[in-house]
Amino acid sequence: MKRLLFGVVDAIKAKSIQFIITTSFTLVTVLVVLFVGVMLYSKFSDTAEQNAYLNTQQILEQVKYNLDSYLIGTTQIFELVDDKIRRSQSVTSEKLNEQLEAIVETRKDIVSIAVFSKKGELLMGTPAKPMRNNSKLTEQSWFRSAIDDPNNLSFSLPHIQNLFKGEYTWVVSMSRGITLKGENGDIPAVLLVDVNFKEIDDLCQRVGLGKKGYVYIIDLVGNIVYHPQQQLIYVGLKNENRSLPLKYSYGSYVDETEGEKRLITIKTVDQLGWKIIGVSYMDEIVTTKNEISRFIFWLLIFVIVIVLFVLSYISAKISRPIKMLERSMERVEQGDFTAGGPIRGSQEVEQLSSRFHLMMDKVRELMNQIIAEQEAKRKSELEVLQAQIHPHFLYNTLNSVVRMVGIGKNEDVITTITSLSKLFRISLSRGKSIITVQEELEHVRHYLIIQKMRYKQKFEYEIEAQDEVLSCKTLKLLLQPIVENAIYHGIEHMADPGFIHISASLCEGKVLFQVRDNGLGMSPEVLDGVLAGSYKSEGGSGVGIHNIHERIRLSYGEGYGLEMESEQEVGTVVKVWIPCLPDDAQEG
Amino acid sequence: MGTIKRYTLYTLLMLIAITAFYSCEAKVEDPKQSKKKTVALIVRMKHGDYWRTVKLGAEMAAKEYDLNLNFYAPDYEEDSQSQMELLRQATLDGYDALVVAPSDDQVLQETIGLAQSSVPIITLDTEGQLPQVKSYIGTDNYDMGKKACEKMVQLIGKKGHIALVGTGRSTANAVSREKGVRDVIAQDKQVELVPVDYVQLDKKLIGELTRELVRHNPGVKGIIALDASTSIGVAEEIEKMGLQEKIKIVAIDSPPEVLEYLQEGVISATIIQKPFSMGYLGVKYALEASEGKQVPERVDTGTKVIDRDNMFWSENQKLLFPFVK
């Protein structure tokens, strides 16, 4: 986990693959989820709002329908009653009374049927109950409207019926002018049918709009017909803005005057012009919206978290092998060629890794080779140097010099000592490993002078060189070991006087040294052993022919080196091939 | 990474995912469940328009503020024993706020004893001054007494003897009303109060008392009854004696009988309370108090003088006849 964290921090610093993958994918996912979320939210909330509107509309439509049909029903009853009274001979007739009683009994919502004279006297009443005092019926709205407009059926607001003794009941009064047949002509009167308000009250009370919403009814001028909180409104604890619904017959609007946002829906009852007003609370609709938005919000967070988790895992999986590869390259850069094994990961990375490792193997091989070559070169040079200052050679030479002094051959002594000094001077040649061909030949000549002194003229020699090659460069001390071999192995044990011929020439663009002797020669097996370096002779400087061959090849490459031909009892020819490198920089 | 390890990781991720998902769901659902509060309403009597109207108002508030209302009431008024039992029952049922109309002080003390200190207590229709009670909601009974007396003074032409019936009751409400009446009379030199004995709350005894009162004080011009039952008893007796023209009656409250007598002219006026407002405000403030909001310490729901002229005004009809039958 901690590593993952550090990984993320590192990734952010540099725009790593991990960072790019994680951020881009997260961004895309977040955008997609946001887009979908916003779409879903708007769709859902639209639908929720639509449903709320529709629901309210439907409920109100139902209330309206019920109310309408109820009012139509009561109107029919009224017409029936009216008809019966008109047909009857007299309002006090037994038959009429029976008929009306039957109506009141079958229709439980009819509270009473009564006919009043213009002065407010009771002419007929069903059920027959005594009148109350102080009812002030002529002042009541139903009476007045029947007198003012006798041909129109009027519905009163719900009120307490106080005309007859018994219980006080809430009624809606239907009234109209009626003409009765009397003994002295027609008598204008008022027909009153009181309908129990309970049915309408129940109808409205049953309607719920959400948890808090309700339905109320007002008449044409804004008086409350029904309101569940009527008492609170009269007491002043509540206020219902009734002026705005009065202006409309249909439709809905959002009202904020009571502090809360409320959806007001209005329908009008065809019969009376009463307005049914549905009040639903917006916060209940909004609750649905809030729930949706909260859900989408959590979903978004959840998706982002999951996506981040998965992406950081995936990107880490992709980028880790690359990082590992990079790390092992870094180690190589610092010089550790043994770094790392194969890295597992995607196909590309695995291939990259295996290529890299192949390459590393090659480099390592070459490095080892170079190291080995360098070591060999140094070793052979060291060997040559050691050979030069070989105590045995020096001792022998000095011995010869002493002997010569003893016999008084002063001239020979001078020659020998001079040669020896020259020999050493060239050998050392201020530590340089490259000298000119001329110097090399000089060196061999001095060596041969000394050896000739020692071997008492047992051999002759000749050195010849083309002028062009004299200034060419060569590794130093190439020829001396060959000449030494020729003397020690070829000529020393020979009965006849020996001859050593040394030449330096330009052949096929290369410099060719040839050392030829007419000594004992070698058998082919020995020849092969010498060339391969496996043959080691007794005594001598210890610098093998093979060493020279190796030195040349290390310095100049494959095309150069030694060639040897030998025949027993005839002699040996050693050819030394080196490249022709003119001595352009004349440095002392 | 080993395969087993990888699968473990995937499984873990899935588990986290599922848990997170369901916790989100739970977060959405939770608040709705815990939000709905319960208010217990304990009144003095199951029957009677007065207490039924209180209940109606309380139910209105419960619907409006979306809470549970538990309603408790004994069968008879002034039955403090069964009211205390109901109190214990309410405590068992659980509530977030308590609205109580205690029959006497003992019940109120019991209420305070039973309720946890964090639960707000609101009293209805009861005077008092206890620190444990968050709010007193009810009628200003002193003012009610004053109004009754002022109406009576006006009815009898500001001159003469009047009687006060229903005095000497132990309840604080009746005491306050009586004080209101007496304070008005003390200001008016021309109106005098005739002495009346204390009687039990019994219709027959009140009738007898009224008869005695009229016999001993033939010049009495008006009677003020200090509660609904007394009002009915007095009116019945006066009607029986045929003295309704001579003796004016001012009543308290509006049971159907009082309203009948009012329309018939036996009772000249009645001072009504507003039980609907009591029930509504009781529950409303109980809810607000339980939510830690500040509620008014004393709420006067108001009174109204009703006489024959205004009893059928449309704004009074709903007050006098709260139930649609």
TrEMBL record, chain A:
Assigned EC number: 2.7.13.3
List, alphabetically, the Pfam families matched: dCache_1 (PF02743), HAMP (PF00672), HATPase_c (PF02518), His_kinase (PF06580)
Q: Which SMART domains match?
A: HAMP (SM00304), HATPase_c (SM00387)
Give the bilayer topology. Answer: Multi-pass membrane protein
Q: Which PROSITE patterns match?
A: HAMP, HIS_KIN
Q: Where is the HAMP domain?
A: 316-368
Supply the name of the protein. Answer: histidine kinase
Query: What species was this sequence derived from?
Result: Brevibacillus choshinensis
Automatic annotation (TrEMBL), chain B:
Q: Where in the cell is it found?
A: Cell envelope
Which Pfam families does this UniProt record tie to the protein?
Peripla_BP_4
InterPro entries on file: Peripla_BP_I, SBP_2_dom
Key words, A-Z: Signal
Instruction: From the UniProt record, list the coiled-coil ranges.
Output: none
Describe the location of the Periplasmic binding protein domain by residue ranges: 42-294
Q: Which domain of life is it from?
A: Bacteria
Family that this chain belongs to:
Belongs to the bacterial solute-binding protein 2 family.
Protein's recorded name: Substrate-binding domain-containing protein
